[in-house]
Sequence to fold (602 residues):
Amino acid sequence: MRGAGRDIPTIPDLLVAQGKLRPHEMAVRCGSQQMTFAELDQCSNYLALRLRLLGIGPDLLAGIFLRPSTVMVAAALAILKAGGAYVPLDPGYPRDRIAYMLEDAEVPVVITDLCTAQSLPSGPWRSVVVQRDFPSAGNFQSEVPPQIATADDLAYVIYTSGSTGKPKGVEVTHRNLLNLVNWHNRAFEITPADRATQMASIGFDAAVWELWPYLSAGASVHLADEEVRISPEALRDWLVSHCITVTFVPTALAEQLIALPWPKRTPLRLMLTGADVLHRYPPAALPFALINNYGPTECTVVSTSSRVPPENGSTKTLPPIGYAIDGCRVYILDENMRRVAPGEAGEIHIGGAGVARGYRRHPELTAARFVPDPFSGDPQARLYRTGDQGRYLPDGQIAFLGRIDQLIKIRGFRIEPNEIIAALNTHPTVRESAVVARDHGGNKSLVAYVVPLAGENITATSLNSHLRALLPEYMCPSIFVRTHSLPLTPNGKTDTTALPAPDENNTIRDRSYVAPETDVEKRVSSILANVLGVPSIGRNDNFFLLGGHSLLGVHVLAKLRSTFGVEVSLKQLFETPNAAQLSAAVEHILGSRMASGTRKMA
Fold:
């Protein structure tokens, strides 16, 4: 049912239509849970009616505090059906960060379940607690709530790292979202026969891209669990066994996946990637297309896109970020907002239908980044200043040249160093600090430089624990370096180029360095240090307390496999996180193998 004044169909309109066209076909699957299009429609109706009774309507927000599940998808759709906009809240984030986002966004209602409700901070918001498994479809009200949201009302608000030290919410409208959906489904020829994946964190804008284009086209969406997402080999096997035809994976993971052997016949036809710089071209034998994409959250996920050609051995430049998508305009401008000549570098500015409304409740930040569009005849048109540098190539594609400002991209996440610095400076032993990204072997890591207060003893564990209580895991530095002062530029700002490289003398540890003892310990310690990008690791240093995480853990396991010929699981790495313990595990596997061989010979 269309409301008055609504000039284009919204996501709820498209999903209601799919519920009528293919009621019994699968819409969403997560492990053993699944919902047909009819069940998704009815579940979301049930929740939407409850939200309406709680006052949710156009431009009013409702939070989603749920782990990946079919209910998470139904909750997002329900908020849109109620006429409101959803705010995705990752339950893995620290409680203080969740509370700040809810307060900053002025969220009156949060949808959660019994598993996550206990982690929800207390506040003025009301909780709608749903079960992970809904009753049978017959128990739901089938009435469709009247669709009252218009194209210019908000669809969702996603928080990104903020240069002011606090995250900021990006307001995206239905019109913005529909431009993404329509381009995607046309460009990639999405049909009801497609099977797509949803793997991004709910708080990452790629999750928006992984849901609405496919569901609006009648395709099914499949949610992968954490263990599958972090292992390239396991993910490849899962994609093949689940007959996935289209998937999105972050750049670092895509580079690992395209290097793996694939079955010559695989249902996968498109691998979409983005959120970081792509360093590799796909091999000629890869049985699917690799699509590189670029776009800030402020411009509704994707602004440019193109297929990456196979490697030919002679290409020495990085893959480009592609052409502007439908409804989007990309300009490369100098500091005076003038177009640069073809081939010259400038700041990437984005205009068109994808440009978001702005930052929620931060008009000064909005005015600084969303500026009038001098190239449009519409006086209301705006450009988003990305802070990214690029240049046009002869074929019209755009080459990405890096950041102009201090923003860092690691593992597909945008990170403002000032937000980490603000958190670090609240530690009771820290006087001042700086944060930079350092590259080691193609992997970027965050390094924090800390000036301690006079006479204070400072440890890596203390700093790490402090930050993990305030920031998401991906924003916590891998290495902490002690320095007596921060080098300054002539204008008084921190000179990040003059910060010293981490070494054995300045890296902050929890205890005195204890050198590896056995040959196996020395080799394992070298592997851990190489993956983390630190000068050395003692036999008792904890891999995860030094900044290790699951994705880096996969690299450790691969190096153990190639060095020792042993298979160590990620679970074992979590249980034996230092060089001494991990070496003992490796030696146990080698010893068991040798004993087995001896028994066979006997």
About this structure: The first strand starts at residue 26 and ends at 30. Residues 523 and 563 are 8 Å apart (CA to CA). DSSP finds 16 helices and 26 strands in the chain. Residues 1-5 have pLDDT under 50 and may be disordered.
